Structure formats: C-alpha cells, structure tokens
TrEMBL record, chain A:
Pfam families: AAA, RCF1-5-like_lid, Rep_fac_C. Its main location: nucleus. It comes from the Eukaryota. This is Replication factor C. The keyword Nucleus applies. One of its GO terms (cellular component) is nucleus. Keywords: ATP-binding, DNA replication, Nucleotide-binding, Nucleus. PANTHER family: REPLICATION FACTOR C / DNA POLYMERASE III GAMMA-TAU SUBUNIT, REPLICATION FACTOR C SUBUNIT 4. Belongs to the activator 1 small subunits family. The keyword Oxidoreductase does not apply. The lineage of its organism: Eukaryota, Fungi, Dikarya, Basidiomycota, Agaricomycotina.
Automatic annotation (TrEMBL), chain B:
Keywords: DNA replication, Hydrolase, Nucleus. Gene3D superfamilies: 1.10.8.60, 1.20.272.10, P-loop containing nucleotide triphosphate hydrolases (3.40.50.300). The keyword Iron-sulfur does not apply. This is Replication factor C subunit 5. Belongs to the activator 1 small subunits family. One of its GO terms (molecular function) is DNA clamp loader activity. It comes from Sistotremastrum niveocremeum HHB9708. It holds the Pfam family RFC_C. GO terms for cellular component: Ctf18 RFC-like complex; DNA replication factor C complex; Elg1 RFC-like complex; Rad17 RFC-like complex. It is found in: Nucleus. Its main location: nucleus. The keyword Transport does not apply. GO terms for biological process: DNA repair; DNA strand elongation involved in DNA replication.
Length: 369, 358
C-alpha cells in the first residue's frame, strides 16, 4: 500500500514519450552526481560514499534551485539502478500528508522492512545496491515539530537497514535532535560561471542561438537559482522561436520574463525620492522634479497600476541605493533599515500599495535628513 | 440578459483589446506544445482571468466553455467537512482554495493528486494535460504553497497549473521559480477609452468623450469597474449628456464620512462613535485592508503636509498587525486612536518625532 506513489511514477513516465515537450528542468536534471554543477565539496563526499556504499543519514539544506533534490535522486539512482529504485527508495514531500500519523505508520512500516534481494538490472550495468533503503523527506522544513519528533527514534532503531535524507531550505526549522543525527551538507548558491556553463550546454543541446550577453542577463536575473534560469531560458527560447520570422533571444525578453522592473522606471521613481541618478543616466528630465507627498503618491499609484511586484521594486530600489556613489553611509544605513522592515511586512502579508508608499516616504525622509 | 462586463468579455486571444505583445506571447506558448506552469499577476480589473480563459480556449478549443459547477466535500485530518465549489470542464478545473481559510492545503492536495493521477481520456483532445487554475493564489497559506512545490514537478506530464494573483510578494520563492511569470498591467487611458467606445458601439449608442474621460478617471485602471459604471450611467440617463454623477459605492462614502469624523473631533466619545461605524463596515463584509486604505487615502487629502507621512506610516504598520493578529477591530481602532493623537498633538505643537523613529 505504501508503495503506491512509487508505482505511479514509471507509468506516468511511459506516457511522456516526447522528450521535446518535456520541461528542460526535468530533461536536464543531473543523471549522475558527477553532473551536479558547483557543490564540489558535497559531490566529493558523496562520491566516496558511492565507492564504499556506506551512507550516513543526510541533511541537505540551501536556497531553492541549487540542486538538493537532484543530488539525492541522482545518488539513489546510481546506488540502486532503475530495477531496484522503486522498492528501495521512498520519496515523500510536502504535497503528501506528513503529519505524525503518517510518520508513525507509513514511514515506520517502510523503515522496518528488511530490504528485498537486489534484482539484476536490465540494462546490463552493475549497481552497488547496498543492503539498505533510503527515505527521502523533501521539503522537510514544512514538517511539524511533532512529526519531526516522532522521527527521532525511528531513525536510530532502523539505522542498519534504512537511511534518511532530509532536504530543506532552512536548517533552523529542523529540530536539533534530528539535525544532530545527520551529516549536514550546505548547498551554496551557484557561482555565475557554473550556471553560465550549464546554460550554454543546454542551449547548444537544444540548438538555441543565444549570445553570451543574454546568458549573463539570465544569470543576473535568477540570482544563483539554476532552476529559475533554466525555466527563463526555455520560456524565452519558446517565445523567440514562435514569432514570425524567428528572432534571436534578446536581453529585454529575458528581463520581461523574469518580471524585472525596467531601469528607466526605477530610476524615475528613485529620483522622485531624492536619489539622484548617477553618472551616465543624466538624460532623465530633471526639471519637472518635485518631491512633495502628492507627487510620490502619484508615482506609487502608477507603479502599482503597472502591476510590478512589490518585492521586485524593493530589491531593485535596494540595489540602487546601496550601490549609489554619492549618498553618505548614514543615509544608506537609514534606507537599509526601511527596506528590511518592508520586506518583513511583505512576508507577513502587508498590502503592496500601502507599503511601497510607506517605503517611498521613509526613504525620502531619510535622504532629506 | 447579462451584464456588459460578461457579455463583451473577449473569448479568444484574437479579440483581446490591449497588451498586444502579451497576447502574441500567450499564443506562442499555447501553440508550442510544451506549455509551462504560469503565474498571472497584476492589479484587479486588469484582465488576468480573461487572459487565462482565452489562453485555455486557444489550448483546447471551444470545449473549455462547456463548464459545470460542482460542490465537493473534503475531509480534513481532524474529520471536519469542507464544502468547496469547483468550476470544471473536460479540460480544466478552477478552484479558489482560499475560500476554506486555513484548510486550503487539504483541498490543494486532494484536487491536484486526483487530477494528476488521471490521464486525459478524450482521444480527440488537443493536449495531453489538464489545467488547474488556482485563483487568489496570493492568499494561499504557506502549507498549501509548500504542497504545490514538488507536485508541480512530479506531475508535469499530465497537469499544468495556472496561478492568478494580485501580487507575488506573498508567494514563496520555490513556487515562483517553477512558474513563468506573466505580468498583466492595468490598461492605460487610451486603451480603456477604446474598450468603452467599442462596448458603446456594440450597444448602439454614442459615448461622449467627456463622459468616457470621467469614467476612466474614476476607475483608476480597473476596466471591470469602468464597464460597470458605464452600464449604470446608461441606465440613469440614456443619452449620457449633461453633468454626470458617478455614484460611489456606499461603503466608500461611509469610509469618507468616518475619515471626516476622525478629523473633526478627538475625544474618547468620538472613538466610541467611530468604533460602532467600523463594526458596521466589518459586519457588511468590507475587508479591513480596504477599510484602512480607503480611510487613510481620504485622511491624507485633508491633513497638513508634515502629518501625511505619519498617517501612512501607521496605516501600513497596523495593516500588517491586522494580518498577523486575529481580531481586526482592535488594530483598526488602535490606528484610529493613533491618528487622532497625532492630529491633536500636531495642533498643540508637541514634538512627536521621537515616536516615529522607533
């Protein structure tokens, strides 16, 4: 009964015959751990475990799109091969019910089974197939404290025949007793060079003509999240290919897909707040500048009407302010305080228009002081 | 006889009036075969839902317009029953999970699993996948969003998700990185007047430019509101000439009255009066966020320049408090009292800057 989710998977896979229609994120998911971009340290350690076929409990953590889930899936596939993968690996994620009842029932039942004898793999390769099973708990930070607590004893009792791999974004949400039972691996945001090489590999595989400059824009817009940059690349290429006649991908396309607010809009907004545009962007009309309350409110209203997201405006405004050449450190510090508070408010469900306006007013005040 | 808003809602991508570039983009996506998950965001009344519907039609053909409404019952782990209305056709399903409040995760899990595990049986269907449209995605709880994450990847072969939201700020990053973001901006004035004129033409009457201008000003980028106002005005005076009075909704006038009350007098007695009025608004299901925004907008029009920033600051402050807390009226009241005291102190010239900084 508990094997149900697993048996579904190959069936579903059978129907996705056309690889051209697959999302590239899935298509280019690393098959072996040697394919993992960046994360040299983690990969080195895991390669050792592959040779010795001994595995500690694992805890992977790091920001989204750095390859945590891909790594453990690739590792499991390399350990067991396709034939044994199904009955040796249990993957649970936040979309499955994972309350305390499930931990006591489903996970415990799977954990205490003695692993079945390894069947010979059909593709003729030899897999290590060590005598234990793996339970992957994806997005473990969304498990309740109680459910995590119930795991503690299970992890120890069945450690001989079952290894756990917890995957999460925030290691602080994992209770200390669990974390101390695992060897922890931190996944760093990808360096731009490895993202770049992965992207250019994919684009050459898919025969997408894309310039280095555009790739660089992609990398900048995604901030170390490889999945996001691949999604953007696929969408951009799809759009570019379907226009008549097909056009090459431009940086503007990429920025629009990524939801980035265009530079001139942000600069205009910033100059209303009293941040003088620096250097080469002096072409903005400075004569109409007034900085009263009403003009700021009008500007905010326009921004919100355009539908730009509050967090995006905030992060771009932040970059602009912090990198600004002429503002004093004190002014920047005051602004940073405001940005931090607004970010918190957005997380707590603050109203976008109200809070963008509030930020604008306080930045204006901080700069005037 | 349906409202003009529904009657003249564009049904296909070709008949959309504005954002031509976006339309081309959507058409390209629909025809390419590998349709991604999508997230539509933009202010209300900008046409997000219309675009979603048009895209679905482009994907599946006219079959998507044959919809039926189901009421489904879900069971929470604690054996509570939830009733949810589901709009579905053979090809897609539309849900508003935030209707059930904190239990939205159950609904998301059940529905998505169900859809994901059934194949498209209709052999004539244009696409192999089904589409799940989730409205008001920005009010999904954290749990529900987490539940979406891996499902979106795992069941990609026979399901696509389209999320509709007003803002993307409350969506967690993993969701955003799995979706193609589509920004639907509010139409500008030219585009709005073109739409209004087209509706007028189809209804066979002339729309004087001055009236159109007034409606556009009033609606502030919300095309739905503009069309509703147009229809109302047409009912009131069939020739649409002469001075027009665009009736404000009752709650808006009520909020304005409240704002004026706050400024007239700052006494405990007045606080009590305001409190009953706030209760009345809440009892009529006006969302507290809207109340605080409307009142503060009115207030800043009527107070002195140095006070304006403070009013907004505290409105923003208490708006977030309201989201975090559970009893809205407390925070609304606290804000009203804060504004009263600021106003009074300003008049008696007491320095309050220390209060603002911390």
């Amino acid at each position: 009964m508990f094997l149900k989710p697993q048996t579904k998977k190959p069936e579903a896979a059978k129907h996705t015959v056309d690889p051209a229609l697959q999302p590239w994120v899935e298509k280019y998911r690393p098959k072996t751990i040697d394919d993992i971009s960046s994360q040299d340290h983690t990969v080195a350690v895991l390669r050792k475990t592959l040779q010795s076929t001994n595995l500690p409990h694992l805890l992977f953590y790091g920001p989204p799109g750095t390859g945590k889930t891909s790594t453990i899936l690739a590792l499991a596939r390399q350990l067991y091969g396709p034939a044994n993968f199904r009955n040796r690996v249990l993957e649970l994620n936040a979309s499955d019910e994972r309350g305390i009842a499930i931990v006591r029932d489903k996970i415990k039942n799977f954990a205490r089974q003695t692993p079945r004898a390894a069947t010979a793999s059909a593709d003729g390769q030899v897999y290590p197939c060590p005598p234990y099973k793996i339970i992957i708990l994806d997005e473990a930070d969304s498990m309740t404290q109680d459910a995590q607590g119930a795991l503690r004893r299970i992890m120890e009792t069945y450690a001989r025949i079952t290894r756990f791999c917890l995957v999460c974004n925030y290691v602080t949400r994992i209770i200390e007793p669990l974390a101390s039972r695992c060897s922890k691996f931190r996944f760093k945001p990808l360096e731009s060079t490895s993202t770049l090489s992965r992207l250019s590999y994919i684009s050459s595989e898919e025969h997408v003509g894309v310039s280095n400059e555009v790739l660089q824009t992609l990398v900048d817009a995604s901030g170390g999240d490889l999945r996001r940059s691949i999604t953007y690349l696929q969408s951009a290429s799809r759009l570019a290919a379907s226009t008549q006649p097909p056009t090459p991908i431009t940086s503007v396309d990429v920025l629009e897909i990524a939801g980035v607010v265009p530079d001139h809009v942000i600069l205009k907004f910033a100059s209303r707040l009293g941040i003088e545009p620096s250097g080469d962007t002096m072409d903005i009309d400075m004569s109409t500048q007034k900085t009263g309350f009403d003009s700021i409110r009008e500007e905010v209203r326009l921004l919100v009407r355009e539908g730009y997201s509050g967090t995006q405006i905030l992060s771009q405004l932040h970059d602009l302010t912090i990198m600004h050449p002429t503002l004093t450190s004190r002014q920047k510090a005051r602004c940073a305080l405001v940005f931090a508070e607004t970010d918190k408010a957005f997380c707590d469900g603050g109203d976008e228009e109200l809070w963008v306006l509030e930020t604008a007013l306080r930045v204006h005040k901080a700069l005037a002081a | 006889m349906s409202l003009w808003v529904d009657k003249y809602r564009p049904r296909t991508l070709d008949s959309l009036h504005y954002h031509a570039e976006l339309t081309a983009r959507l058409r390209a996506l629909a025809s390419s075969g590998d349709f991604p998950h999508m997230l539509f965001f933009g202010p209300s009344g900008a046409g997000k839902k219309t675009r979603v519907a048009c895209t679905l039609r482009e994907l599946f053909g006219p079959g998507v317009e044959k919809i039926k409404i189901d009421q489904r019952v879900f069971m929470t782990p604690s054996k509570r029953k939830l009733d949810v209305n589901i709009v579905q056709s053979n090809f897609h399903i539309e849900i508003t999970p935030s209707d059930v409040g904190m239990y939205d995760r159950v609904v998301i899990q059940e529905i998505l699993k169900e859809i994901a595990q059934t194949q498209q049986v209709d052999l004539n269907a244009k696409q192999r996948f089904k589409v799940v449209v989730i409205s008001e995605a920005d009010s999904l709880s954290r749990d529900a969003q987490a539940a979406l994450r891996r499902t979106m990847e795992k069941y990609m072969s026979n399901m696509r998700i389209i999320l509709c939201a007003n803002s993307t700020s409350t969506l967690i990053a993993p969701i955003k990185s799995r979706c193609l973001l589509i920004r639907v901006a509010a139409p500008n004035e030219d585009e709005m007047s073109r739409c209004l004129n087209e509706v007028a033409k189809k209804e066979r009457f002339d729309l004087p430019p001055s009236a159109a201008q007034e409606i556009i000003q009033d609606s502030n980028g919300n095309l739905r509101k503009a069309l509703l106002v147009l229809e109302t005005l047409k009912m009131q005076s069939p020739d649409l000439t002469g001075p027009l009075t665009i009736a404000k909704p009752d709650w808006e006038t009520y909020c304005h009255k409240l704002a004026d009350m706050i400024l007239q007098e700052q006494t405990p007695q007045r606080v009590l009066d305001v409190r009953t009025k706030l209760y009345e608004l809440l009892a009529h299901c006006i969302p507290p966020d809207v109340i605080i925004k409307t009142i503060s907008n009115r207030l800043v029009d009527n107070v002195a320049e140095p006070l304006k920033a403070d009013v907004i600051h505290w409105a923003a402050f208490y708006q977030v408090r309201m989201r975090l807390g559970s009893k809205k009226i407390f925070h609304l009241e606290a804000w009203v009292i804060k504004v009263m005291s600021l106003y009074k102190h300003f008049f008696y010239d007491v320095d309050l800057t220390g209060d603002f900084e911390d």
